Amino acid sequence: MRLSICAVAATLFTSTIAAPTSKFDSLANTSEESESEIVRRDGGDGKYFHEPGGDNTLGHYDKRYFHGVVSDEERRDTQKHMVRAYLDFFRKNDLDTWIAHGTLLGWWWNGQRLPWDFDLDTQVSGATLHHLGEAYNQTNHSYTSDDEQVKRTYLLDVNPWIWQRERGDGMNIIDARWIDVRNGLFIDITGLSETHPDSQPGIWSCKNYHRYRTDELYPMRETMFEGVIAKVPYSYDKILTDEYKESALVNTQFNGHEWNPNAKIWEKTEETLRQEEEERKKKEEEEKKKTVEQAQMA
């Protein structure tokens, strides 16, 4: 972990949570829901979760709650409170979950989200995933911030294809989502399962080919993320370098942002700010021109 978050590192301690169980990891033939029933629920294309578009922006909203692309400020505010509500819900209900992928990388730098990320990623064990499906699917969860200034509602939606623990046709690699019903932004939740215990014992994988050894994941470490208690895998450094290479842990410029070592945050570069200002002015001019044209036609 970077020296810049040594205060966070100092709070890390090994969790007593046991290694994942394979109790629910061989359910390919035990689903109580038939494939025809699933097809009726997902709209007939085999995919359960749908987004309003396929690019890096529109691909990170749930189509059911999408009302338009939000501003960067609203997205950051949404993500901050969304992940706090998510982590608090799992902790209060004694359910295991941990931050993963780009969200884990953001934690490594400063215990916060990467400011350019459009979604957040977490993982759960296969046992927890199926418990979510049985006990919490399609449930709404209210959230109030500590200062009582922010009140939100989130939907926990579990994909009915969770019993399929290998990639399949690739349409349902996301197992569940924690969705802000105001704007459709979400946290992706994926389960890890020991899919081949006979030939590959102790190897846990998701449907997107991410694989981990038991001793890389467990025992989990507790830390802080976005101001609340969170868990990260035991070998978080190895997991990050395996997924993103070592350069992601040392490069201080990325995606129009630059690392500020004094403030310990990622900030937009001057070039990025200049481009955004030009785009803002261009949009204002186009809207003004449109207003004039409409007035002339009236």
| Fraction in helix | 25-40%
Strand content: 15-25%
Q: What's the arrangement of strands in the largest beta sheet?
A: 2-3-7-6-5-4
The end-to-end distance, rounded to whole angstroms, is 62 Å
Rg result: 21 Å
Q: How would you describe the shape?
A: globular
Number of helices: 8
Structural class: alpha+beta
Mean pLDDT: 88
Low-confidence regions? 3-11, 22-42
Order of H and E elements: HEHHEHEHEEEEEEHEEHEEEH
List the quaternary state of the chains.
Answer: single chain
What is the β-strand count?
14
Largest sheet: 6 strands, mixed
Count of structural domains: 2
Describe this structure in words.
This protein has 298 residues and is an alpha+beta fold. It has helices at 6-10, 35-42, 72-92, 101-110, 126-135, 214-217, 236-244, 270-297; strands at residues 13-14, 98-99, 120-125, 139-144, 151-158, 176-180, 186-192, 203-205, 211-213, 221-225, 228-232, 253-254, 257-260, 265-268. The chain has two domains: 3-251, no CATH class; 261-298. Helices cover 32% and strands 21% of the residues. Strands 2-3-7-6-5-4 form a six-stranded mixed β-sheet. A three-stranded antiparallel β-sheet has the order 1-10-11. A hairpin with a 4-residue loop joins strand 13 (257-260) and strand 14 (265-268). Helix 4 crosses helix 7 (236-244). The longest helix is centred in the C-terminal third of the chain and has 28 residues, at 270-297.
